[in-house]
Amino acid sequence: MDVARIDALRARPVAPGSHIIDGAPRPASDGAVMDVVSPIDGQVLTTVPRGTADDAAAAVAAARAAFHDGRWSDLPPAARKAVLLRWADLIEANALELAVLGVRDNGTEIAMAMKAEPMSAAAAIRFYAEAIDKLYGEIAPTGPGNLGLVHREPVGVVGAIVPWNFPLMIGAWKLGPALAAGNTVVLKPAETASLTLLRIAELALEAGMPPGVLNVVTGEGAVVGAAIAESMDVDVLVFTGSGATGRRLLEASARSNLKRVYLELGGKSPNVVFADAPDLDEAAKVSAYGIFRNSGQVCVAGSRLLVERSIHDAFVEKLAAVARQMKVGDPLDPATGAGAVNSERQLAQNLQFVEEARAAGRRIALGGGRILEETGGYYMAPTIVAGVAPDDRLAREEVFGPVLAVIPFDTEEEATALANATDYGLAAAVWTADLSRAHRMVRRIKAGIVHVNTYGGSDLTVPLGGVKQSGNGHDKSLHAFDKYLDLKTAWFKL
Ligand code: NAD
Fold first, then answer.
1. Which has the least CB within 10 A, 61, 181, 377, 404?
2. Whole-angstrom Cα distance, residue 38 to residue 195?
3. How many other β-carbons are positioned within 10 Å of the β-carbon of residue 113?
4. What is the distance between the alpha carbons of residues 10 and 119, in angstroms, rounded to a whole number?
5. Which residue's CA lies nearest to atom 28 of ligand 1?
6. What is the pLDDT of residues 222-258, one digit of tens each?
7. Which CATH number fits domain 270-459: 3.60.110.10, 3.40.309.10, 3.20.20.100, 3.40.190.10?
């Protein structure tokens, strides 16, 4: 990685952001702005508009008009594809600039941000762009007197509300299929990670995307997000974030126009290590990264470690040894393994979980506190809490921080029951050399993805989505199109 260039980009002032509505930069309707505080040092980096309900309505109106006149939806799929491929190329050409801007905004370590943010966003946009002129409709197997055609049509205006941990990647998982399918979009970034999404919206215009097709409105969830959710003119709402917000979005849909709502929510994902795992050193290394990268701010983080009792102490020590080697700190240093916690509020929340565990007499096997306070930034030591009881809040609730809860087990049955003893069902992993056991656990664990002898790293070709209170609907893979395309039947009497 080009360290000199990173340092030059880090020193660059960041101009105040604007909404992008109908292809043009716009301030908030009342001129209000909010500070963008960098978690690297706690300093104000720039401002973005503190959007109003009127701003959200203006963006929805622009998206509706753009959808209605067919400037995007009526283009041949190959023409939309060409624009999207140019957009992906521009994102890739500006990857380092985008990655550094994003890191200054949200604190993810640069090595991970580079891959997971601009590069994976470009890959997702390309994936859906390349697919869209290869999707066919259907001819139904009717009797000879009839003809049944099944068309796939864009649903219309998509509202997309995204979180701060991977704004470009998660944004692109929604924008890629939504836009390729011919919809128009109103996107609402998280309060603490707006800058890169505003920038790629500018790049979309540069790539030739017509005005009004992609609109971005910054501001507070309770104002801008709520206005999009309550809108009578948004057809589908796609969301990644917390369960509490997801619940509000479903209520908003019920109160307004019954728009479809697809939720990608949190997790308390079990990482189950059996004594017969093929390589315990590898399991410890991958498990450490599976919880501590991006300071645990990963929806699929393996935050509950279930370990067979016979290897419990040795395995926890192996994992702690890997975590001790991980460099935590300046996220713009390419050697950093875990960057900053996104906000002061998130850091306080993480520390509260640890304090409760400590007060309940649980063993803090590693870390447990804030570090590097002198920088003014928000950093937390990778933390391992052993002896966690299945009923502890730490075993049941998502921290969304670098805190690993460890629970021992004795049998496969017990491991399965513990793995499923949560309201969530996003991700899981099983480490074992016993193929039959691996297959049994894949079937029995209630989760959207079960890794076997690895953690993370699945690519765009497979769906990501939760079961239980981790959500509904899927991002990634061709299945993601289902959210953005309606089926329409044409029935002919011949
Ligand atoms: P959050 O729910 O607080 O915020 C997410 C988005 O919703 C933000 O854009 C926010 O402004 C908006 N929002 C907040 N209140 C709103 C309201 N009343 N109406 C409409 N919009 C509102 O979540 P967060 O703290 O930003 O993100 C962390 C959460 O996201 C974690 O629970 C994490 O597990 C989850 N997450 C899930 C996935 C996944 O794919 N399943 C991926 C990343 C993060």
1. 61
2. 11
3. 28
4. 19
5. 241
6. 999 999 999 999 999 999 999 999 999 999 999 999 9
7. 3.40.309.10
